[in-house]
């Protein structure tokens, strides 16, 4: 008998070979099932409650994947591709997870029959290259010089992105707002220049777009109501200074031997404060914003001089105001001049719902805007914000990459047809593998039908027939439970979404197929010690 050789630490979990690969694929399948039903205009929403007990209702693939606390190492790749799709394009997060899961599902029989994973990976890569080439060939290019057409196209893309969201009833209203907000930005289209503020109450249609900066009224002191609430052609002082009397330090000691000297100490402190405020007033600023508190003495002082002030302004709002209106955030009042003051055409304070908002409009420097969302529940507003984020990302992408394809499963059916035809020209195992990839692409239209409660087999047969006849833009028509030319129906998506989704899904598939062994080291320090039962002090049970 040969003695057993132990290489790894005791308790290490190793699993390898074909069963390991199949178990990884099965783990990915269960992840896909979690987001499968959220695809498309008739997709369902998920309610996820985290360990702290806070609930999130979402339809966004990436949000759901982030909130699922996944521990399986292979299944984590699906979370990563959903995150990468969200960061790169913004929309199509559910599609990318579905595609990756379906590729693995269709290739699983080949793995079980003993086809070497490397051969499968080669076929997947080949299919991906064919698909990307086909998308680039089919994609419809837009002429940018025609502004009206270009804007209409952006609105169509935003509406398609909002179609599958909670706010699809108001997609006309929001797609216009999203396009307006992105077109106010400068050439680099920085995302952080679009602020989204949420105010509960009111209807969704009460949401408004402010071309400029808007933020909630900060904590106000006495004298605040006497300040003017509206100015034209204002100068804005941005400060990082506290304008109130400081409480004495606890361990400070000032020895005085008569009341007059104590009075001098107090007067000196008041004088410093008044000097600061006088300098701000002389600079010509009419609106004073500070990151630190502005006390009631200062508030009253500014009110007497027809100036508006707000203390404790959040950092991001102060930075956006600085970028929009120019100027600089000052930490001293000694050299406030015109150079460091921001400017804007119009400032006003307006009541929106229960909140008051400070609005800065007509900002000369940067292009910035703020979307103020209204709506019922807190979670509903958060989901609306996530939906708008997707739409904003899509519009940004479309402005940069000027080609679109038809959505609603049309492009997937066309690619599926192309791959199926191509596979018949290849001899050997690749023919079957590329055929399986072609079948896997049909998951998008099939899932769209399933989620809407249609007969998926019937609709897919009609689609295959249409695509075989050369009608390349035919996809699922959710409204009529039938098929339609989605290009004519303006269900448009930037081609970059599809390319990105296919590339990410194929990468994830190849990565999972190339893993044939998992070695899990035991947690250091052995098993976690059991907690003593809760009881009265010293851990004694009741």
TrEMBL record:
Reactions accelerated catalytically: ATP + H2O = ADP + phosphate + H(+)
UniProt xrefs under PROSITE patterns: TCP1_1 (PS00750), TCP1_2 (PS00751), TCP1_3 (PS00995)
Xref: Gene3D superfamilies: GroEL (3.50.7.10), GroEL-like equatorial domain (1.10.560.10), TCP-1-like chaperonin intermediate domain (3.30.260.10)
Keywords per UniProt: ATP-binding, Chaperone, Cytoplasm, Nucleotide-binding
One Pfam family named in its UniProt record: Cpn60_TCP1
Location in or out of the cell: Cytoplasm
Primary subcellular site in the record, as a coarse category: cytoplasm
GO function terms (MF aspect): ATP binding; ATP hydrolysis activity; ATP-dependent protein folding chaperone; unfolded protein binding
Region (Disordered): 521-542
Subunit comment: Heterooligomeric complex of about 850 to 900 kDa that forms two stacked rings, 12 to 16 nm in diameter. Heterooligomeric complex that forms two stacked rings.
Task performed by this protein: Molecular chaperone; assists the folding of proteins upon ATP hydrolysis. Known to play a role, in vitro, in the folding of actin and tubulin.
PANTHER family per the UniProt record, alphabetical: CHAPERONIN
Family designation: Belongs to the TCP-1 chaperonin family.
Protein name as annotated: T-complex protein 1 subunit eta
């Amino acid at each position: 008998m040969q003695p057993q050789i132990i290489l790894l630490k005791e308790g290490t979990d190793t699993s390898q070979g074909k069963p390991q690969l199949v178990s990884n694929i099965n783990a990915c399948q269960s992840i896909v099932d979690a987001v499968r039903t959220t695809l498309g205009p008739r997709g369902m929403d998920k309610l996820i409650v985290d360990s702290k007990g806070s609930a999130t209702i979402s339809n966004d693939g990436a949000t759901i994947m982030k909130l699922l606390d996944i521990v399986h190492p292979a299944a984590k790749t699906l979370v990563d591709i959903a995150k990468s799709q969200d960061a790169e394009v913004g929309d199509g997060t559910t599609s990318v997870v579905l595609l990756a899961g379906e590729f693995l599902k269709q290739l699983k029989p080949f793995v079980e029959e003993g086809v070497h994973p490397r051969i499968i990976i080669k076929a997947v890569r080949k299919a991906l290259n064919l698909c990307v080439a086909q998308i680039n060939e089919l994609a419809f290019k837009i002429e940018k010089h025609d502004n009206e057409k270009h804007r209409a196209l952006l609105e169509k893309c935003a509406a398609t992105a909002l179609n599958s969201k909670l706010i699809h009833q108001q997609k006309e209203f929001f797609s216009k707002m999203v396009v307006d907000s992105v077109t106010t930005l400068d050439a680099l289209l920085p995302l952080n220049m679009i602020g989204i503020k949420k105010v509960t109450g009111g209807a969704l249609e009460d949401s408004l777009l402010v071309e400029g900066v808007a933020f909630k009224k900060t904590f106000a002191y006495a004298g605040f109501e006497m300040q003017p609430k509206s100015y034209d052609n204002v100068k804005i002082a941005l400060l990082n200074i506290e304008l109130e009397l400081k409480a004495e330090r606890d361990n400070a000691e000032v020895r005085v031997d008569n009341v007059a000297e104590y009075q001098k100490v107090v007067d000196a402190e008041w004088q410093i404060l008044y000097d600061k405020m006088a300098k701000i007033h002389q600079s010509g600023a009419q609106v004073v914003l500070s990151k630190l508190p502005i006390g009631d003495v200062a508030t009253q002082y500014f009110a007497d001089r027809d100036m508006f002030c707000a203390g404790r302004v959040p950092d991001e709002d102060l930075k956006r105001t600085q970028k929009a209106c120019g100027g600089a955030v000052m930490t001293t009042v000694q050299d406030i001049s015109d150079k460091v003051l921001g400017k804007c055409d119009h400032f006003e304070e307006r009541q929106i719902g229960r909140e008051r908002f400070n609005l800065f409009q007509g900002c000369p420097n940067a292009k910035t805007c703020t979307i103020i969302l209204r709506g019922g529940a807190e979670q509903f507003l958060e989901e609306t914000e996530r939906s708008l984020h997707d739409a904003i990302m899509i519009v940004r992408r479309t402005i940069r990459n000027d080609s679109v394809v038809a959505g609603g499963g049309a492009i997937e059916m066309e690619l599926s047809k192309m791959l199926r035809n191509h596979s018949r020209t290849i001899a050997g195992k690749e023919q079957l593998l590329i055929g399986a990839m072609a079948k896997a692409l049909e998951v998008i239209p099939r899932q769209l039908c399933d989620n809407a409660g249609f007969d998926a087999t019937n609709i897919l047969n009609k689609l295959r027939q249409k695509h075989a006849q050369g009608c390349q833009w035919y996809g699922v028509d959710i409204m009529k439970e039938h098929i339609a030319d989605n290009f004519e129906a303006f269900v448009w998506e930037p081609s970059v979404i599809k390319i990105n989704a296919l590339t990410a899904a194929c990468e994830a598939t190849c990565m999972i197929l190339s893993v044939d062994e998992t070695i899990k080291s035991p947690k250091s320090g052995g098993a976690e010690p059991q907690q003593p039962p809760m009881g009265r002090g010293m851990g004694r049970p009741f």
